[in-house]
């Protein structure tokens, strides 16, 4: 009986040791960096950290060598004017952003900025420092679903700051559907509530222009087509 008990204990110890060994963190070296964490079939699987050359790092969940689950990514994009530092925290699927998450960027923008689906205003010829955050839903690496976007733009030459906020629907990375877009420059505020298509105001909506210093407010029923204002009625 004692021998049987000792055998069972020894066998349990062997399985326990094997389980610890199988789940131990390992380091995998690549030409462009390394991975440190748990693996399965020699692939990242479970919790782990992948570091690439330059500023590129992922900490989070892995499934069969792909980022999947919850994770944090830090990366940099090189531009003529400098670098944009980006951070993403949220859900992943098939190695890309998918589900709910937060994506933020900060750094210098190109000298020619504007006309993008973010703010839809005229191009300017100055250097800008930007800071923006999107908090919401993603699908296959793009903003899609419901989300809130905050954008802060500072003119390096005039030191004028533009604040833009959008809350609403997104599709394939663009503002698309119903939403509210607010733009504040100094004491002037422009607010549009209505439809969007591919990042442009489109369809019926309400537009409010206010000036804090002049203590004036004007609200109109508007109709846009692909970003162009077609009519403004019932203004008061």
Automatic annotation (TrEMBL):
Keywords from the named record: Repeat, Signal
Signal sequence bounds: 1-21
InterPro entries assigned to the protein according to its UniProt record, in alphabetical order: MORN
Keyword Transferase: no
Gene3D superfamilies: Histone H3 K4-specific methyltransferase SET7/9 N-terminal domain
SUPFAM superfamilies in the cross-refs: Histone H3 K4-specific methyltransferase SET7/9 N-terminal domain (SSF82185)
SMART domains: MORN
Lineage: Bacteria, Bacillati, Bacillota, Bacilli, Bacillales
Protein known as: MORN repeat protein
